[in-house]
Specification:
3% helix, 5-stranded antiparallel beta sheet, mainly beta, 1 helix, 4-stranded antiparallel beta sheet
Protein backbone atom coordinates (compact mmCIF):
# COMPACT_ATOMS: atom_id res chain seq x y z
CA UNK A 1 0.00 0.00 0.00
CA UNK A 2 1.29 3.40 -0.97
CA UNK A 3 -1.33 5.63 0.63
CA UNK A 4 -0.14 9.12 1.44
CA UNK A 5 3.06 9.16 -0.63
CA UNK A 6 3.71 12.77 0.34
CA UNK A 7 4.81 11.34 3.68
CA UNK A 8 7.73 9.70 1.91
CA UNK A 9 9.10 13.09 0.98
CA UNK A 10 8.47 14.60 4.40
CA UNK A 11 10.10 11.66 6.19
CA UNK A 12 13.42 12.28 4.45
CA UNK A 13 14.22 15.15 6.75
CA UNK A 14 12.45 13.80 9.86
CA UNK A 15 13.69 10.20 10.13
CA UNK A 16 16.21 9.84 12.99
CA UNK A 17 19.51 8.11 12.26
CA UNK A 18 19.17 5.24 14.72
CA UNK A 19 21.63 2.35 14.65
CA UNK A 20 21.25 -1.35 15.44
CA UNK A 21 23.46 -4.34 16.09
CA UNK A 22 24.12 -5.31 12.47
CA UNK A 23 26.97 -4.33 10.15
CA UNK A 24 27.00 -1.64 7.50
CA UNK A 25 27.81 -3.20 4.14
CA UNK A 26 28.40 0.21 2.58
CA UNK A 27 30.61 1.96 5.12
CA UNK A 28 32.23 -0.23 7.80
CA UNK A 29 33.08 2.89 9.78
CA UNK A 30 29.40 3.82 10.32
CA UNK A 31 27.43 2.49 13.24
CA UNK A 32 24.33 0.49 12.41
CA UNK A 33 23.14 -1.07 9.17
CA UNK A 34 20.35 -0.75 6.70
CA UNK A 35 20.57 -4.21 5.18
CA UNK A 36 21.78 -7.72 6.02
CA UNK A 37 21.54 -10.53 3.47
CA UNK A 38 20.50 -13.92 4.79
CA UNK A 39 22.67 -16.66 3.23
CA UNK A 40 20.44 -19.27 1.66
CA UNK A 41 17.27 -17.83 3.16
CA UNK A 42 15.95 -18.35 6.66
CA UNK A 43 12.79 -20.47 7.09
CA UNK A 44 10.57 -18.96 9.76
CA UNK A 45 7.66 -21.38 9.71
CA UNK A 46 4.27 -20.18 8.53
CA UNK A 47 2.03 -23.16 9.09
CA UNK A 48 -0.43 -22.70 11.93
CA UNK A 49 -3.22 -20.20 11.32
CA UNK A 50 -4.28 -17.82 14.07
CA UNK A 51 -7.89 -17.23 13.10
CA UNK A 52 -9.65 -18.15 9.93
CA UNK A 53 -10.21 -14.93 7.91
CA UNK A 54 -13.56 -14.34 6.30
CA UNK A 55 -13.70 -15.55 2.72
CA UNK A 56 -16.65 -13.41 1.72
CA UNK A 57 -18.69 -16.60 1.19
CA UNK A 58 -16.59 -17.23 -1.90
CA UNK A 59 -15.52 -20.84 -2.51
CA UNK A 60 -12.45 -19.81 -4.56
CA UNK A 61 -10.86 -17.66 -1.81
CA UNK A 62 -8.27 -19.26 0.48
CA UNK A 63 -5.67 -18.25 3.06
CA UNK A 64 -2.15 -18.55 1.58
CA UNK A 65 -0.25 -17.18 4.62
CA UNK A 66 -2.02 -17.09 7.97
CA UNK A 67 0.59 -14.93 9.71
CA UNK A 68 2.38 -12.67 7.23
CA UNK A 69 3.69 -10.36 9.96
CA UNK A 70 3.00 -6.85 11.17
CA UNK A 71 2.67 -3.96 8.72
CA UNK A 72 3.07 -6.21 5.68
CA UNK A 73 3.48 -4.38 2.38
CA UNK A 74 5.22 -4.45 -1.03
CA UNK A 75 3.41 -7.64 -2.09
CA UNK A 76 5.03 -8.81 -5.34
CA UNK A 77 4.92 -11.90 -7.51
CA UNK A 78 8.29 -12.66 -9.13
CA UNK A 79 8.99 -16.00 -10.75
CA UNK A 80 7.62 -18.79 -8.59
CA UNK A 81 7.61 -16.80 -5.35
CA UNK A 82 5.23 -14.44 -3.54
CA UNK A 83 7.33 -11.73 -1.83
CA UNK A 84 6.38 -9.17 0.79
CA UNK A 85 8.00 -6.95 3.43
CA UNK A 86 7.03 -7.43 7.08
CA UNK A 87 8.16 -5.83 10.30
CA UNK A 88 10.18 -8.39 12.23
CA UNK A 89 11.64 -8.35 15.73
CA UNK A 90 14.84 -6.58 14.62
CA UNK A 91 13.44 -4.46 11.80
CA UNK A 92 11.91 -5.08 8.41
CA UNK A 93 12.31 -8.32 6.48
CA UNK A 94 11.84 -9.43 2.90
CA UNK A 95 9.99 -12.73 3.03
CA UNK A 96 8.65 -15.12 0.44
CA UNK A 97 6.45 -18.18 0.07
CA UNK A 98 5.65 -20.42 -2.88
CA UNK A 99 2.29 -19.94 -4.63
CA UNK A 100 1.35 -23.40 -3.38
CA UNK A 101 1.99 -22.35 0.22
CA UNK A 102 4.43 -24.01 2.61
CA UNK A 103 7.08 -22.49 4.89
CA UNK A 104 7.85 -18.77 4.88
CA UNK A 105 11.47 -17.87 4.16
CA UNK A 106 13.27 -14.64 5.07
CA UNK A 107 15.57 -13.52 2.25
CA UNK A 108 16.85 -10.13 3.49
CA UNK A 109 16.72 -8.26 6.78
CA UNK A 110 16.61 -4.47 6.65
CA UNK A 111 17.51 -2.14 9.47
CA UNK A 112 15.11 0.48 8.12
CA UNK A 113 11.94 0.09 6.10
CA UNK A 114 12.95 -0.32 2.43
CA UNK A 115 11.37 1.87 -0.22
CA UNK A 116 9.97 0.69 -3.56
CA UNK A 117 11.24 -2.86 -3.98
CA UNK A 118 11.73 -3.76 -7.65
CA UNK A 119 12.41 -7.29 -8.89
CA UNK A 120 14.31 -7.48 -12.18
CA UNK A 121 16.24 -10.39 -13.60
CA UNK A 122 17.71 -12.38 -10.72
CA UNK A 123 17.95 -9.36 -8.41
CA UNK A 124 15.88 -7.20 -6.11
CA UNK A 125 16.53 -3.43 -5.91
CA UNK A 126 15.40 -0.97 -3.24
CA UNK A 127 16.12 2.45 -1.77
CA UNK A 128 17.39 3.12 1.76
CA UNK A 129 16.27 6.66 2.48
CA UNK A 130 18.21 7.33 5.66
CA UNK A 131 21.58 7.17 3.89
CA UNK A 132 20.48 8.09 0.40
CA UNK A 133 21.34 4.77 -1.21
CA UNK A 134 20.13 2.49 -4.00
CA UNK A 135 20.90 -1.17 -3.25
CA UNK A 136 20.71 -4.56 -4.90
CA UNK A 137 21.08 -8.23 -3.97
CA UNK A 138 20.41 -11.54 -5.69
CA UNK A 139 17.20 -13.43 -4.93
CA UNK A 140 18.66 -16.75 -6.08
CA UNK A 141 22.34 -16.87 -5.08
CA UNK A 142 23.19 -15.87 -1.48
CA UNK A 143 25.62 -12.96 -1.60
CA UNK A 144 26.39 -9.45 -0.46
CA UNK A 145 24.21 -6.41 -0.80
CA UNK A 146 25.64 -4.02 -3.39
CA UNK A 147 25.44 -0.25 -3.07
CA UNK A 148 24.76 1.03 -6.60
CA UNK A 149 24.27 4.71 -5.76
CA UNK A 150 24.74 6.94 -2.75
CA UNK A 151 24.08 10.67 -2.45
CA UNK A 152 22.76 12.36 0.67
CA UNK A 153 21.86 15.44 -1.41
CA UNK A 154 19.81 13.43 -3.93
CA UNK A 155 18.16 10.62 -1.99
CA UNK A 156 16.42 7.92 -4.08
CA UNK A 157 12.66 8.31 -3.64
CA UNK A 158 11.00 6.04 -6.25
CA UNK A 159 12.10 3.04 -8.34
CA UNK A 160 10.93 1.09 -11.38
CA UNK A 161 12.44 -1.21 -14.00
CA UNK A 162 12.20 -1.73 -17.73
CA UNK A 163 13.64 -4.59 -19.74
CA UNK A 164 17.15 -3.10 -19.64
CA UNK A 165 17.35 -0.52 -16.84
CA UNK A 166 16.37 0.38 -13.31
CA UNK A 167 15.14 3.97 -13.16
CA UNK A 168 14.95 5.96 -9.95
CA UNK A 169 13.81 9.42 -8.99
CA UNK A 170 15.60 11.40 -6.29
CA UNK A 171 14.92 14.32 -3.99
CA UNK A 172 16.77 16.72 -6.29
CA UNK A 173 13.89 16.34 -8.77
CA UNK A 174 15.88 14.26 -11.25
CA UNK A 175 15.48 10.76 -12.69
CA UNK A 176 18.49 8.51 -13.29
CA UNK A 177 19.03 4.99 -14.62
CA UNK A 178 21.38 2.04 -14.10
CA UNK A 179 21.61 -0.98 -16.40
CA UNK A 180 20.18 -4.24 -15.06
CA UNK A 181 22.96 -6.32 -13.59
CA UNK A 182 25.33 -3.37 -14.00
CA UNK A 183 27.36 -1.66 -11.31
CA UNK A 184 28.41 1.41 -13.30
CA UNK A 185 27.58 4.98 -12.37
CA UNK A 186 23.97 6.15 -12.60
CA UNK A 187 23.22 8.08 -15.80
CA UNK A 188 20.96 11.17 -15.77
CA UNK A 189 17.68 10.94 -17.69
CA UNK A 190 15.74 14.17 -16.97
CA UNK A 191 14.88 16.63 -14.22
CA UNK A 192 11.65 18.30 -13.19
CA UNK A 193 10.26 20.29 -10.29
CA UNK A 194 9.50 18.37 -7.09
CA UNK A 195 10.37 15.01 -5.58
CA UNK A 196 9.42 11.93 -7.64
CA UNK A 197 7.40 9.50 -5.51
CA UNK A 198 6.05 7.21 -8.26
CA UNK A 199 7.73 6.20 -11.52
CA UNK A 200 7.08 3.91 -14.49
CA UNK A 201 9.17 3.19 -17.56
CA UNK A 202 8.86 1.61 -20.98
CA UNK A 203 11.49 1.08 -23.65
CA UNK A 204 11.04 4.61 -25.04
CA UNK A 205 9.57 6.71 -22.20
CA UNK A 206 9.73 7.22 -18.48
CA UNK A 207 6.94 8.85 -16.42
CA UNK A 208 7.03 10.07 -12.83
CA UNK A 209 4.76 11.83 -10.36
CA UNK A 210 5.85 14.32 -7.70
CA UNK A 211 4.96 14.82 -4.06
CA UNK A 212 4.66 18.58 -4.54
CA UNK A 213 1.66 19.77 -6.63
CA UNK A 214 0.92 16.26 -7.90
CA UNK A 215 2.78 16.77 -11.18
CA UNK A 216 3.20 14.03 -13.78
CA UNK A 217 6.24 14.27 -16.04
CA UNK A 218 7.30 12.36 -19.14
CA UNK A 219 10.77 12.17 -20.68
CA UNK A 220 12.55 10.03 -23.28
CA UNK A 221 13.92 6.90 -21.62
CA UNK A 222 17.35 7.59 -23.07
CA UNK A 223 17.46 11.13 -21.68
CA UNK A 224 16.13 14.53 -22.68
CA UNK A 225 13.83 17.34 -21.61
CA UNK A 226 10.97 16.60 -19.20
CA UNK A 227 7.42 17.38 -20.37
CA UNK A 228 4.90 18.25 -17.63
CA UNK A 229 1.68 16.41 -18.48
CA UNK A 230 -0.75 17.02 -15.60
CA UNK A 231 -0.93 18.56 -12.11
CA UNK A 232 -2.99 18.17 -8.95
CA UNK A 233 -2.93 14.38 -8.70
CA UNK A 234 -2.69 12.19 -5.62
CA UNK A 235 -0.45 9.14 -6.03
CA UNK A 236 -1.83 6.30 -3.90
CA UNK A 237 -0.35 3.37 -5.80
CA UNK A 238 2.55 2.77 -8.11
CA UNK A 239 2.24 3.91 -11.70
CA UNK A 240 1.36 1.11 -14.12
CA UNK A 241 2.05 1.39 -17.83
CA UNK A 242 1.06 -0.59 -20.91
CA UNK A 243 1.48 0.00 -24.65
CA UNK A 244 -0.82 3.02 -24.75
CA UNK A 245 -1.86 4.19 -21.25
CA UNK A 246 -0.78 4.87 -17.63
CA UNK A 247 -2.86 3.89 -14.58
CA UNK A 248 -2.81 4.72 -10.85
CA UNK A 249 -5.01 5.16 -7.77
CA UNK A 250 -6.12 8.59 -6.59
CA UNK A 251 -7.69 8.25 -3.15
CA UNK A 252 -8.65 11.94 -2.99
CA UNK A 253 -10.59 11.65 -6.24
CA UNK A 254 -11.89 8.21 -5.19
CA UNK A 255 -10.87 6.87 -8.55
CA UNK A 256 -8.74 4.57 -10.62
CA UNK A 257 -7.15 7.07 -12.99
CA UNK A 258 -6.00 6.55 -16.58
CA UNK A 259 -4.09 8.75 -19.02
CA UNK A 260 -3.03 8.07 -22.59
CA UNK A 261 0.75 8.07 -22.89
CA UNK A 262 0.59 10.75 -25.61
CA UNK A 263 -1.99 12.95 -23.81
CA UNK A 264 -1.98 15.87 -21.37
CA UNK A 265 -5.19 15.00 -19.54
CA UNK A 266 -6.48 12.36 -17.15
CA UNK A 267 -9.85 10.66 -16.75
CA UNK A 268 -11.31 8.22 -14.20
CA UNK A 269 -11.51 4.58 -15.24
CA UNK A 270 -13.47 3.70 -12.09
CA UNK A 271 -15.35 6.38 -10.14
CA UNK A 272 -16.74 6.55 -6.59
CA UNK A 273 -14.22 4.06 -5.19
CA UNK A 274 -13.86 5.05 -1.55
CA UNK A 275 -10.51 4.42 0.14
CA UNK A 276 -8.75 2.54 -2.66
CA UNK A 277 -5.63 0.93 -1.21
CA UNK A 278 -3.83 -1.38 -3.65
CA UNK A 279 -3.68 -1.94 -7.39
CA UNK A 280 -2.22 -4.13 -10.13
CA UNK A 281 -3.15 -5.01 -13.70
CA UNK A 282 -2.85 -7.54 -16.49
CA UNK A 283 -3.31 -7.23 -20.23
CA UNK A 284 -7.04 -6.52 -20.13
CA UNK A 285 -8.05 -5.46 -16.60
CA UNK A 286 -7.11 -3.35 -13.59
CA UNK A 287 -7.51 -5.01 -10.18
CA UNK A 288 -7.75 -2.97 -7.00
CA UNK A 289 -8.73 -3.11 -3.33
CA UNK A 290 -10.96 -0.75 -1.35
CA UNK A 291 -11.27 -0.32 2.39
CA UNK A 292 -14.70 1.33 2.42
CA UNK A 293 -16.43 -1.91 1.47
CA UNK A 294 -13.53 -4.32 2.19
CA UNK A 295 -13.53 -5.60 -1.37
CA UNK A 296 -11.36 -6.90 -4.21
CA UNK A 297 -12.48 -5.40 -7.52
CA UNK A 298 -11.79 -5.47 -11.23
CA UNK A 299 -12.47 -3.06 -14.08
CA UNK A 300 -11.69 -3.53 -17.76
CA UNK A 301 -9.21 -1.11 -19.32
CA UNK A 302 -11.90 -0.07 -21.77
CA UNK A 303 -14.48 1.76 -19.66
CA UNK A 304 -16.94 -0.69 -18.12
CA UNK A 305 -18.76 -1.28 -14.82
CA UNK A 306 -16.64 -2.18 -11.81
CA UNK A 307 -16.90 -5.84 -10.85
CA UNK A 308 -16.68 -6.87 -7.18
CA UNK A 309 -14.77 -10.15 -7.10
CA UNK A 310 -15.01 -10.74 -3.34
CA UNK A 311 -16.00 -8.75 -0.26
CA UNK A 312 -15.88 -9.17 3.53
CA UNK A 313 -12.09 -8.83 3.70
CA UNK A 314 -10.05 -7.16 6.45
CA UNK A 315 -8.48 -3.94 5.15
CA UNK A 316 -7.26 -5.44 1.85
CA UNK A 317 -4.24 -3.54 0.57
CA UNK A 318 -1.46 -4.62 -1.82
CA UNK A 319 -2.61 -6.97 -4.57
CA UNK A 320 -0.66 -9.03 -7.14
CA UNK A 321 -1.43 -11.52 -9.92
CA UNK A 322 0.08 -14.81 -11.06
CA UNK A 323 -1.43 -17.01 -13.76
CA UNK A 324 -5.15 -17.34 -12.95
CA UNK A 325 -4.90 -16.22 -9.33
CA UNK A 326 -4.97 -12.97 -7.39
CA UNK A 327 -3.11 -12.50 -4.09
CA UNK A 328 -3.61 -9.71 -1.58
CA UNK A 329 -2.62 -8.65 1.92
CA UNK A 330 -5.39 -8.29 4.50
CA UNK A 331 -3.74 -5.69 6.71
CA UNK A 332 -6.47 -5.99 9.33
CA UNK A 333 -5.53 -9.63 9.96
CA UNK A 334 -1.91 -9.87 8.83
CA UNK A 335 -2.83 -12.53 6.27
CA UNK A 336 -2.11 -13.08 2.59
CA UNK A 337 -5.12 -14.36 0.67
CA UNK A 338 -5.44 -16.00 -2.71
CA UNK A 339 -8.30 -16.35 -5.13
CA UNK A 340 -8.89 -18.22 -8.36
CA UNK A 341 -9.99 -15.53 -10.79
CA UNK A 342 -13.41 -15.96 -12.40
Amino acid sequence: MRSGLLAVFLALSLTPACGNDGRDLDDPGDEGTDDVAIAGGEPIGGGAPRAEPDRGNHPLVEVLVADAGLYSSELTVAGDRIYWVAKGVDGYELRFVRPTGGPITTLVKFGDEPLDLVFAGDDVYWAAERRGRLLRTSVDVPGPIEVLYRDAAAVPSALTASQKYVYFGATDGCVRRIGLGDASAALPVACGSGTPVVIAAADTEVFWGTAEDGLLYQAPAGGGAADKRIAGESWDSRLYIDDSQIYWLNAQARAVQVMARDAHGVKPLARAQYAPAGMTMDRFDVYFTTWSDQSIKRVAKVESPVEVLVGEQADPADIALRDERAYWINEGQGTIMQMVLP
